[in-house]
Specification:
homodimer; four-stranded antiparallel sheet; alpha+beta; Jelly Rolls; DNA-binding; 251 residues; 2 domains; 11 helices; Arc Repressor Mutant, subunit A
DNA sequence: CGAACCCTTGACAGAAATCAACTAAGGTGG
DNA sequence: CCACCTTAGTTGATTTCTGTCAAGGGTTCG
């Protein structure tokens, strides 16, 4: 582990409340590692031996069944993921792979479980984190069940703009095929949907998104705090929408 | 509150670990109430003032947006719901209404938040509960994204059979329109889908489900522990599939 | 007994997946 | 540096799935 890794991790909401000695003990047992792009970090169903912390790069969480696959989330620095499986000492429900070259910290989940039983402050942080993750998943499920794919695409594009500071133009943080999968549709369908959205106030040219008529887009999306969130609650868990730069919202 | 309410509540995983005096202090501030069928207990977006515990009857958790509505879960005795909102002191993401006459305990969330900061055992229970709820929502989202509606119906029917003890026949625990909404489809679509499933090894006649060819149904469903669960992890949160009798699995 | 309400069925329209072909961009290796 | 290959993205044609609208039968409950 590099010397400047620790302050980054300590700064996470999950770790900043705990006693320093416990934090250090935990980091003592952890190790950092660099991974190439496209590497499978976690397989669905494996025992949850490590809590993962993304320091650099980005990680895709995905699920598969019957030969199909779908993206569940994209995790960016500095965030943790698969906390719940570690806590419950249960098999991972999602798989994870690096999107680009990435640097991660692996925290042994056995030590994690031991420490939150001894450190009440840490327990509170874990509670807060899990509650936030849960709420993010509920928002996600609501979006899937209440909106059709066109509405999901539009709300995604508008939300990204808001997260970037209500900018009129920004770059997509992930490639379109991944975005399509995240939004629960095929790449072909996304491609066509983006065309039709040009008349709804947003244009996508390659990776660039341009809000051409915010009022019109807003009218279509009908943004809802109880779906799109005031601000992502579970940033540090990374179980949110793929973001442009998660770190910028947390500081 | 009735005298026999307390042991029931104390028996919940969420409350059985905490110090008795804290439990009693919490119950002191809580109150029980009976509600008629179809009463709206919680509105989406309201501040989370109370953790709810279902003692009798059943409660539907649902979400709405743009005039649409969908069922997110059905909670049965004895279970709690909307813990995460209480913990975070944030607005409810889902609404709740009674399905039949119901008896609930309302626990002030302010007291709840105070106590888990003082009682480490309770904090651990909360962590366990939230992690389980989270994982249930992940399973849910996976099912929505990886399976089409026919597969979701089939897996629901097979799962209910398993939960009831691998019985060949059982009664649907909820009415079909609610089930359809829970599974993310229209009542008409569910009705038609049930017809087509007769050739896949399961027949539904009114509220009665009959597994006519378990092997064939199994082949269609391809049950997956990482979606359908070995057993519901978050029973006491009730954020699971509508169940025949939640209590029977917990004891 | 009547009024809701649930469920089902049919006809139709719309949404989304699939299959196939083609373009463009990026990376690799000669 | 260029030829080649791989892959993301797009577009069109088609099929499949799903929602919508409408109507009718059955049940429950006041």
């Amino acid at each position: 582990m590099r010397p400047d890794d620790l302050p980054e991790i300590r700064h996470l909401p999950l770790f900043q409340g705990m006693a320093l000695e416990n934090f250090e003990a935990l980091m003592e047992k952890s190790y950092a590692q660099n991974f190439p792009a496209g590497l499978e970090l976690i397989r669905q169903g494996d025992p949850a031996d490590f809590l993962h912390v993304v320091l650099e790069g980005s990680v895709e969480l995905y699920a598969s069944w019957a030969g199909r696959e779908c993206t569940m989330a994209v995790v960016r620095p500095v965030s943790t993921f698969i906390l719940a499986a570690c806590i419950k000492d249960a098999p991972y429900l999602m798989a994870a792979r690096t999107l680009g070259r990435s640097r991660l910290i692996l925290v042994p989940s056995a030590d994690l479980r031991q420490i939150f039983r001894r450190d009440p402050e840490f327990a509170v942080s874990v509670i807060d984190e899990l509650a936030a993750c849960y709420r993010t998943m509920v928002r996600n499920a609501k979006s899937l069940k209440l909106r059709n794919s066109r509405e999901r695409v539009a709300s995604y594009l508008l939300r990204q703009s808001r997260l970037a500071g209500d900018v009129a133009s920004y770059m997509l943080p992930v490639e379109k095929r991944l975005l399509a999968s995240y939004l629960g549709m095929t790449p072909e369908n996304l491609s066509r949907t983006l065309r039709t959205l040009e008349s709804a106030g947003v244009k996508v040219d390659g990776m660039r998104v341009i809000i051409t008529d915010r009022a019109k887009l807003n009218a279509l999306v009908q943004p809802d705090l109880l779906i799109d969130g005031p601000d992502p609650e579970a940033i540090s868990a990374g179980i949110g929408l793929p973001m442009i730069n998660a770190a910028s919202y947390r500081r």
